[in-house]
């Protein structure tokens, strides 16, 4: 990995520096490592904040990000929902499955899937996911209200 970073840094510094300042050019792999370490120390990597940034940068994928009274995040891709609507207009019956058994440490993951009628074996295709801190029924009811409103 450092070989790649070093090569990229050397290429970038050769294009950016005009040769007047030798301090701008990369001399070895350790310089790249030290710069990367310094950048990582400045950032506070927090999963919740990263989810918030992701929601801002990718419009329409995270539909709900709630922190209080408990953590709940609902996400789906807009193209998947559009595909679901096109299937609803072409097929009389669609089979959905809601799985709430995924426990990932302190959180739970619930997945809404659908049997895809176009494929031969009708594989399960994920439609939307919810990450949540509790298994209360209200949490799941909110998920389905959000799915209904799309």
- Secondary structure class reads alpha+beta
Strand coverage percent: 15-25%
Number of domains: 2
CA-based shape: extended
N-to-C CA distance = 42 Å
Number of strands: 5
Q: Calculate the mean pLDDT score and round it.
A: 79
Largest sheet, spatial ordering of strands: 1-2-5-4-3
How much helicity do the residues have? 40-55%
Q: Write the H/E string, N to C.
A: HHHEEHEEEH
What's the Cα radius of gyration?
23 Å
Tell me the layout of helices and strands:
Blueprint: H1 2-16, H2 29-42, H3 47-57, E1 62-66, E2 72-75, H4 78-90, E3 96-104, E4 107-115, E5 124-132, H5 137-149
Antiparallel strand pairs: 1-2, 2-5, 3-4, 4-5
Helix pairs in contact: 1-2
What does this structure look like?
- This protein has 150 residues and is α+β, with helices and mostly antiparallel strands.
- It folds into two domains: 41 residues, no CATH class; 103 residues, no CATH class.
- It is built from five helices and five strands; from the N terminus they run H-H-H-E-E-H-E-E-E-H.
- A five-stranded antiparallel β-sheet has the order 1-2-5-4-3, with helices on both faces.
- A hairpin with an 8-residue loop joins strand 4 and strand 5.
- Helix 1 packs across helix 2.
- The longest helix is centred in the first third of the chain and has 15 residues.
């Amino acid at each position: 990995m450092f070989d790649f970073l070093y090569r990229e840094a050397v290429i970038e510094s050769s294009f950016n520096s005009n040769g007047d300042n030798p301090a701008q050019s990369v001399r070895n792999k350790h310089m790249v490592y030290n710069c990367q370490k310094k950048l990582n120390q400045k950032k506070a990597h927090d999963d919740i904040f990263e989810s918030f940034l992701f929601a801002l940068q990718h419009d329409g994928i995270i539909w709900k990000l709630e922190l209080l009274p408990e953590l709940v995040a609902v996400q789906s891709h807009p193209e998947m929902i559009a595909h679901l609507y096109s299937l609803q207009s072409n097929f009389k019956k669609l089979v959905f499955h809601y799985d709430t058994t995924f426990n990932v440490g302190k959180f739970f993951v619930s997945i809404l899937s659908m049997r895809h009628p176009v494929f031969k074996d009708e594989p399960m295709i994920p439609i939307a996911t919810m990450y949540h801190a509790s298994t209360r029924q209200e949490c799941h009811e909110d998920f389905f209200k959000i799915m209904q409103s799309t």
